[in-house]
């Protein structure tokens, strides 16, 4: 089983990706006010996890796979535009929040590939990227496959196959409510090591439900990488403070991988 590497011209990738750093905001390191499950504000006093991650535990009976976040984003921002319009280019022209100039979707996709490729390149050798059988995306709840994120990942030049291992079932799934049985595996995954990737993370309801389906089918989800984690500084002064702290922090492509041991569940 291969350990994940990124093929292609590393020097060119480094310069192209470093030019995008002004648009990226580093995720917060572990801290008393940060949820270890989702890198956001730990909003429940005296609990280990935030209320969204506690919902995951309650709905799925399992602690969340800690989200490994490349960047934070907020709306409006260029990064939000890229993550929205790479899969929905027709919506760009009329979007009142748009910050980034109109461009063909393939250019946006290529930019997201550059960000993802550089992140993976700088983390080659990390335990969650070793001995992988497959890289799998969280299926879209609204659009028919293939997911646009698969094109992003193909643009990375990975040595591990990008495979659709999951599909949505008819089980209702809302953006804020994790659900058992919302996804099903399309092929046997018993004992396989799967890197799960999603484009954005807000409550984790979708990606954690997807991770759960893989785990229930016997796969080891080595990590859940998300290109960007939504922050809403207007939600609470505490969120605004974390956002300001991180927006002022230096961006690093290297990641402190979440502990492979699961975060403790709420009492
Ligand atoms: Zn959380």
Automatic annotation (TrEMBL):
Membership in a protein family: Belongs to the ComF/GntX family.
SUPFAM superfamilies assigned to the protein according to its UniProt record, in alphabetical order: PRTase-like (SSF53271)
Gene3D superfamilies according to UniProt: 3.40.50.2020
Lineage: Bacteria, Bacillati, Actinomycetota, Actinomycetes, Kineosporiales
Protein name per the record: Amidophosphoribosyltransferase
Transmembrane portions of the chain: none
InterPro entries with a match to the protein in the record: ComF/GntX_DNA_util-trans, PRTase-like, PRTase_dom
């Amino acid at each position: 089983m291969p350990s994940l590497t990124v093929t292609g011209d590393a020097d060119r990738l480094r310069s192209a990706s470093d030019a995008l750093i002004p648009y990226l905001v580093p995720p917060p390191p572990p801290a008393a006010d940060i949820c270890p499950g989702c890198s956001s504000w730990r909003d429940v006093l005296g609990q280990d996890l935030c209320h969204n991650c506690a919902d995951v535990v309650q709905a799925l009976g399992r602690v969340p796979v800690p989200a490994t976040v490349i960047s934070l984003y907020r709306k409006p921002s260029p990064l939000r535009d890229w993550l929205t319009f790479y899969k929905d280019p027709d919506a760009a022209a009329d979007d009142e929040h748009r910050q980034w100039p109109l461009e063909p979707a393939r250019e946006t996709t290529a930019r997201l590939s550059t960000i993802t490729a550089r992140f993976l390149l700088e983390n080659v050798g990390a335990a969650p990227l070793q001995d992988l059988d497959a890289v799998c995306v969280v299926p879209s709840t609204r659009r028919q496959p293939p997911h646009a994120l698969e094109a992003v990942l193909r643009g990375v030049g990975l040595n591990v196959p990008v495979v659709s291992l999951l599909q949505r079932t008819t089980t209702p799934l809302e953006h804020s409510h994790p659900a058992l049985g919302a996804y099903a595996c399309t092929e046997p995954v018993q004992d396989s090591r799967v890197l799960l990737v999603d484009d954005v993370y807000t409550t984790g309801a979708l990606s954690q439900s997807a991770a759960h389906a893989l785990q229930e089918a016997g796969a080891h989800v080595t990590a859940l990488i998300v290109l960007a984690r939504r922050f809403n500084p207007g939600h609470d002064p505490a969120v605004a403070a974390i956002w300001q702290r991180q927006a002022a922090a230096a961006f690093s492509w290297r990641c402190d991988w979440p502990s492979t041991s699961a975060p403790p569940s709420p009492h």
